[in-house]
Amino acid sequence: MALLARLLALAVAALLAFPTLAQAPRYGGELVFPVPSEPPSYDGHREETFGLIHPLAPFYNTLLRVDPNDRSGTKPYPSLAESWTVSPDGKTYTFKIRTGVKFHDGSEMTSKDIKASYDKIIFPPPGVGSTRKGQYAVVESVEAPDATTVVFKLKHPSGSFIASLLSPYNWIYKADIIAKDPHWYETHIMGTGPFIFVEHVKGSHLVGKKNPNYWDKGKPYLDGFRAIFIRDSAAQVAAIRGERAQIQFRGFTPKDRDNLKAALGDKITVQESPWDCILLVAINHKKKPFDDPRVRRALTLALDRYEGSKALSQIAIVKEVAGVQVPGTPYATPPEELAKIPGYWHDIEKSRAEAKRLLKEAGVPDGFSFTFMNRGIPMPYEPLGVWMIDQWRKIGLNVTQRVIEPAAYFGALRRGEHEVAMDFQCGYIVEPDLDMYKFLSSSRNPANYGYYEDPVLDKLYDQQSQATSPDERKKIIKEFESRVLGEQAHYLMTLQWHRIIPHSSRLHGWTITPSHYLNNTLDTVWLSQ
Amino acid sequence: MGYYIFKRLLAMIPTMLGVAVLIFILLRVIPGDVVEARYLTQGSAYVSQDLMNIERKKLGLDQPLWKQFTGWMTGLAHLDFGLSMWTGSPITEEIKLRFVLSLQLALMASTIATTLAIPLGILAAFKQDTWVDYAVRVFSIAGLATPSFWLGSLMILAMLIVFHWVPPMVFTPLWVNPWDNLAQLIWPALAVGYRYCAVGTRMMRSTMLEVLREDYIRTARAKGLKMKLILTRHALKNAILPVLTVISTEFAFLLGGLVVTEQVFNLNGLGMLFVEGISHRDYTMIQALVLLVATTFLAVNFVVDIAYGWIDPRIRYR
């Protein structure tokens, strides 16, 4: 009897701890979600926006995906590949491909399709653009020795190769179609995913219906989904508040979250996470006095990131104090270690005194003026820009803000006209190779708007990229971080973005990750009554 | 009259050509292009110059400007607006999708505005300096002072708070489901129509006041003609001409200019397409839309000019 009671208590405790276990997934229903932007074309290998991923990912599968229940959004999980092995020299990755997977046109998916898709991404034919080609520079060849095996041969071992295959953009297309016309997928949708394309009314909405022959038996749970293109954030909030939509997968502001919670109470569930997007400050090393590391260090020392986080997280989509990796993810430097880097010290008075000393030592006069170029987007560029200007004034710098229209902004950065400017980085997965590429010398990375050359940094990057042991990699990343943000202060980090997803409590089976590009296949999502 | 119409139609050609040249040059002068907008704004550090060159070549942006212009003009001569540089879809298809909504909204707003503006303007003029006049003036000045998008936001907020309801988010054509169609469009039509009505009311009131002071109205009154007849048969015909001009210009504006209101109500109209085209630097799309709006203005002005002669027989065309 005592044993029975104990078992019962355990079962109750388990149900309370994991509320999703309490309810079996329910079949049926249509998920409606606003998407703040619209896909330019339908080709995942070509495009670079969440506006493509949110409505179109449910039509496709990738070779691997991230574990849909992993909040860090970094754990590899099988998708079209059931399993994989790595050769002892770390240069050959062999994937066992799932059988019984059908494209929406009824044809069988085989390793040939995977090879063709990856060839299009890594070795695109002349005249075909591949946005992520540069991320696979390590790949020497992709082979399909039989229908259920795909082999990737690398030029050298890579610590990030598996993570790079988790890209939500690398949809598997049909080889025969790509062979006939590599641009076909720009205007057509046809994959192996849990949903089948129904219609896209441009500027309005896109509809998908359940794939009855989906290879993952029992899924998807939904009958279909409807992605509605709504640019205005107030209209997106109104859609959730009026219960016309259940979720918006990108994110809302803290104020929107509070308003929705106040209006809908228990009908709203909020998931939050650090967001793999950050605004950085690019300091143009070609403009004096910013070629002097002491001046750059003074700029970072002036920022009280900890107090800034407390205040700004109330009004903007930023929160965590971060280094080069999203806080809480496997390669992120723990807060106590980060606090040792100049600019991250907890004692702001000491930081600012040091900043003033450095400016004096560098011969920068008190009241020195410069122009800070910012992008004409209110959230979070505007509050962060205002905050930084105020912080820099506290060490005697006189900063003027110049706001540039969004579409022209990065062109201006590429021309290198700025002295100090807001820059932006957003990743589809938290991975040091992807997140740290930004900081490489400008001869290796044209998107380095600091316009510096730092061979030491480049070497550290290559070393961490090729390190196969996580501990060794962590050590090199810390060294890299300390150099780029502290010692040389090539770039300044502002605050990590903070992703807030208030969604209908009827929605289950979806877990937030730091990336708004992940977990959009919708195969695990279901709606309760 | 036939000669006049021919002359007016002919005069439209150089106007359109001027608009075409101007928009083509202006677009190339502003910084950034569609390839930058597509690849540099998403925060990826991996975008290579090679990729941007491939995309520019694909869109013909690597060609000299004169070649791009002549290519566009040749297409226009065949009534081919080309493909959107952003989506790759035919521009006519993209515009057609939005035109139905914008046209219906413009018609609804114009109907609401004219139905209210003309009687209110006449009433205010007729009852000048009475409480009726004051009430109409307050109503119309408030309309002029209230931006449509703000009124729209208030409407949505009120509907959410009071009825826990928001209008449908997706456009349904009138002939598919009239109820859903009206449930979505009536609110923006009211928000826009109010401001539009305010402009019309003010204009109607002032022109009517002017006409009511004319000698021939005094004569008609002295003859003992009923006031209703004086107003409708004699005064209105002369007072309505400036109002007609204002209403028609507003109508042309509504077709492509409701940018913020469309955003607030999430309407898939031409205004939003315009703004998106500009933010994406979709040259071909903006060029086509500017020409469409210019044509609408020219056509509306032309129709109004012809209507002048029909309403006021004193006007003769040569």
Structure in words:
The complex is a heterodimer of chains A (529) and B (318). In chain A, strand 8 and strand 9 (205-210) form a beta hairpin. In chain A, the strands form five sheets. Chain A has a five-stranded mixed β-sheet. A four-stranded mixed β-sheet of chain A has the order 1-10-9-8. Chain A has a four-stranded antiparallel β-sheet with strand order 4-5-7-6, covered by helices on one side. Chain A contains 18 helices and 17 strands. The two termini of chain A are 37 Å apart. In chain A, helix 17 packs antiparallel against helix 18. Chain A is α+β, with helices and mostly antiparallel strands and 529 residues long. Chain A has two domains: 29-221 and 506-527, Dipeptide-binding Protein, Domain 1 (Dipeptide-binding Protein, domain 1); 274-498, Dipeptide-binding Protein, Domain 3 (Dipeptide-binding Protein, domain 3, Roll). Chain B is mostly helical and 318 residues long. Chain B has two domains: 2-77, no CATH class; 91-311, MetI-like fold. Chain B has 13 helices and no strands. Chain B has helices at residues 2-29, 34-39, 49-59, 65-77, 91-126, 131-145, 148-163, 178-212, 215-222, 227-257, 259-264, 270-279, 283-311. In chain B, helix 5 runs antiparallel to helix 6 and helix 12 packs antiparallel against helix 13. At the A-B interface, helix 8, helix 15 and strand 14 of A face helix 2, helix 3, helix 5, helix 7 and helix 12 of B.
Question: Could you name the key traits of this structure?
Answer:
heterodimer; A: alpha+beta; Dipeptide-binding Protein, domain 1; Dipeptide-binding Protein, domain 3; 5-stranded mixed beta sheet; 4-stranded mixed beta sheet; 18 helices; B: 318 residues; mainly alpha; MetI-like fold; 13 helices; 0% strand; globular
